[in-house]
Amino acid sequence: MPSFYVDEMDIDVGEFLDACSKKEITELVEYLIEDGYLSPKSVVVKQEPKSMLEQEWDEVVDKIQENRLMLTAEEEEIIRKIAKRF
User: Are residues 41 and 58 in the same domain?
Assistant: First the structure.
């Protein structure tokens, strides 16, 4: 991790991260997962650019997730049945 030698200093998070190498950022993410600050499912690994179909699918799933409290019981059950197939 980057080293900062000062008695007292307010370091911005962005400034700290900019001073980290990719390996150090990976270590930081692993530490945050181990300590329960992040869910392993919430960590997105940088990937190749997505196709239009993949982007559209991500938008659909995000909309469902963001509005899940507005789903009817029937709609929830349909989604649960689909999920159980996998």
Answer: no
pTM: 0.48
What amino acid is encoded at 16 in this protein? Answer: F
pLDDT for 3-35, tens place per residue?
766 677 778 889 889 999 989 998 999 999 999
Q: Cα(60)–Cα(24) distance, rounded to whole angstroms?
A: 34
Domain that holds residue 5: 1-46
Name the strand (E) or helix (H) holding 83: helix 73-84
Q: Report the alpha-carbon distance of residue 58 to residue 12 in Å, rounded.
A: 32
The tokens describing 35, both together, are 């300590």
Instruction: State the Cα–Cα distance between residues 56 and 47, nearest whole angstrom.
Output: 16
Separation of alpha carbons 32 and 6, rounded Å:
25
* Gyration radius of the chain over CA positions: 20
